[in-house]
Records
---
Amino acid sequence: MVARTTTSTNRLLDALRFFANDFRVNLAVTINDTSKFSSGVERVLHGADVHRIVPWRDVRNRAIEYHLAVSASENIDFEWISTRTVVLPHGLGFNKHVPTDVPGATRLAGLPPVDVLRDGRALVVLSHPEQDAQLRAACPEVAGNTAVVGDHTYDRLLASRPLRERYRRLLGVAGRRLVLVSSTWGRQGQLGVWGSLTHQLLAELPADEYQVAAVLHPNIWARHTPLQVRIWHEDALAAGLLLLPPTRGWQAALLAADLVIADHGSLALYAAALGTPLLLAAFGDEVVPGTPVAQLGASADRLDRRLGLRDQVEHALATHRADRFAAITNRVFARVGESTRLLRDLLYRELGLAPPPSPPVLSRVDDPVPDLREVTAFSVHSEFVDASTLRLWRYPAAVQRLGDPDTHRQPLPANAVRHLAVDEAEADLTLPQNASVLVRRDVGTAAEAAGWTANALENHPGARVAAGATAEGCLARLRDGRLVRVRVTGPPPDPMLLASAVYAALRAGRLHSGGFTVCAGAVTAPVTLDVRG
């Protein structure tokens, strides 16, 4: 198994499962670290319990004996490999022209060197017969050195669709809509063209109605380091962005998504094939004309950064047809449902072994493990829509920068009242000083909440309300000394929501003992207030 980049390594690790329970096969892994994206490969392998890595010098010196090489990169140093190499795809098709070492020259990404193909030293795995015709036209030497087996990842996605609600639960989506933003690598990808997109989505979409997630190509993480990626997204992460790591979780996030905002990377094709609503935020001119990706780029709707994002998101959701891109994706995926068996049997055939008699296991896609932080400060807008119903719209404060020219938030009702609500765990210490509402989310007794709220108001003279979570809801203290016991019928929602409801009732002149319903996105919470003092 020859690893080279984090992207190709992830695909290699997927292929390891084909040899499960077979004591005839011994796996050895080496790293041909000749890419600027090789950083992190060893970490990915160690994370998969591959702790014994064959040094590449042993491959060059013929110090290791093996019967087949498998890689998911067409750029490995084939001249040092003593057997035929099965080249697995690390994307969908051959859709991109990438630069070569010769100034101004490009090559077709995914295609091994001509001399390697001419000598039959590589077998290129394809997902559709159309790719074979494309490669033959570009490089006649590829003839006889390809195998169409379908796409194993797509088969896993299809088989895992019944688990969509599981993945949404693990991602914490609850009753919200999940908007998944994806970026391929390079200056023409979404991150290179519109790096602030996740920030703007979080600023314009109400937090109780939408969740935003991001999947970045592994090359982005490898080239810029995880630290740099997180620094770029610092405010977005504080605002609740679900950032999926480069090694796992993108498939689950794709299945969980209500809308995908993509570019010319493979994830756009997967989304289109699954029938998920799709918008394009960028699309590079490096795409090969006539390919399915190029056709998708000409057909899919574009996200316009000059306009409000929420209107465009909701229009895409309302007008989508699941079969809209079927004619395009039918050019990408063949042998649907058979790929796992076909790819396993191909690998065994190249090894000269009979495949196991039982069919291979088609594994569900891995559970997501996102980088997720709880939002600890909200800009809240409130309005009593009638005598018994309070509606709240909450936006993460971390992405609410005054005068941001790129934010086009949908207008709120004219009578909506704004305030800032901040949890005690907020890292930005300027926010509690400017907050109208202070909250402790940690559930405690009424006595503990009473003590905390008194201390919070004493330390923050600008706040009007402080509230501590209790098992039944929360206990709020007003600046004038009154205490408000908030009880919820059913499971209590976010204590910050209840605290904001108390403040909204205070501002509206409706703070008295009695009940009303708090609505925020999919949350509908009947509350009873007991006002004392």
---
Amino acid sequence: MRLLRGAVIAVLSALLLILPTVAQDAPEVIILPVDGAQFLPGALFDVRVEVHAEELPDDFAVTINGEDVLGNAELTSWTAEESLLGIATQAATWRDVTYTEPGDYTVEVVAGGETHTVTWTVREPGMGGAKNVILFIADGGSVAVNTATRLISRGMTEGTYNDRLAFETWSELGLISTSGLDSIITDSANSASAYNTGHKSAVNATGVYPDTSVDPHDDPQVETFASMVKRVLGMSVGIVTTAEYVDATPAAVWAHGRQRNNATRSDYALQIIGDGLMAGRIPELLPEVILGGGADYLLPQTVDGSTRGDDIDVLAAYEEAGYTVVEDADGLSSIMEETPAMLAGFFHSGNMDVWLDRNVYTDNVTTFPNQPGLEEMTLAALEVLSQNENGFYLEVEGASVDKQLHPMDFDRAVADMIELDRTIAATMEWLEANGMLEDTLLVFVPDHAHSFDVYGTVDVEAFNAAEDVLGRRFAIRTYAAAGYPTYTDEDGDYFPDAWDVNITLAWGKVDNPLYTEDYQVSPVPRTPSIRDENGNYIPNPDDDPNGIPLGGNLDPASSTSVHTLQDVPVWANGPGAEYFGGSHENIEIFFGMANALGLNPAASE
């Protein structure tokens, strides 16, 4: 709750800075969507005007382009106890607003003798040219992650890489800025929401503009890309992830909410079928494909392992809605012998196990030993989605690049990045074999970055033979002494034949808790820091006892490293790819995909 409250306060502070100075007796006013918000013609969105006062001023008025709209508003209020800011609030709300004509729309709010103004822009629709869109998200990726992945998976000869990653052969390269409404540093919910709605939001939030009420389910919503392409173009939608399917990045395809706790994720599971706490406000999306982890959100609370707080059997509801449901790799392979119309696969109770543990250190995978890989899930999704002659939108997430960078488990992060790269290559081969490559916009982009990079190599034998920390530091080689790591790939699958090689990479992050580092692959998933009796995180003596101690530079209550500010690369190929060249805000991923399809929701009005 502390993080959420801080995020909302940060949003409101930013909003109040851009509104006019208010006279001492005039109440504060917040207008959502914010100034500068942009929309497609015919896109659906909610509008909320908050007045921080015990009652509405007598002169309260709201106009849009000079037209009085207050008579159509739903008027509500909440007390100081029901406010995240501790301020009594009056609110006017309009649901499912839409403007079909491109141009600027100016909102003027009069309250207590002061006028507050924001301007929104409805963009011209794009020209189109694509039939399908596939968005590949390397959660937590960056240029440095791509580079390390290229070095390990492709190798280098005399300073030249032996090959490029699959997406690095695409025609367009740009940069994406990832900050949100509330902070310079984003999380996955906020950033993936920008990609899927064309609107910036706040940490933990997806598909909404956060308001100040404590109710996490009343915030103004914005329509998602998936919703638009289904209702306007009749396209199919798919979500493939190695995370829980209701985690931030996959859920951004359809979900609307302000938090990332179990209750919200449980509600996201129901929002797919138009049920739950948002029932009546959110139309069912029913994506034709849902593949990932998160099975515990399907089970009623009476079943062991359930993370739900209710007795709803979501799995039964999905089957009733038309999904063919599978639970392991064998089931996925079997069901694809006769392609279903709708496919849902939940292969782990939580996040799926990472590639390195599923394929190398298999003793770490015990509860769910038969999980499919990202490549297998994506190819199955393509088979299902391609049955729709109107085209499809597919989001594919390599989730554990991020989930392994947080605990500084760099080998596992890179292995999952290699898996995503192989998935992209397999997707391109499938599209070409099925005559769809020329009709499909392909986009690769991380949702945010980490401060990860490589700065040399490590002589493992010398490192392990050293008797103290100083001796271990002499084993770290930089500049000319660095030479090359000794990973090999004799079988040509782009994964190293062995991960415990003699010369590894010296890599790390700018930010970290107190922990130790030995630059060698860990046979078990890393837990670099543990909590002491005072609630602060200290090096875990069981994680890396012979490593070099690294001083922490984060809040002592931080157990892992965090996200960073840096722009992330976007690669694109196919019809509409030229949109993505150059430097952009993260909302332009949405508008670029819409442009490629010629998406114009107003055409359905």
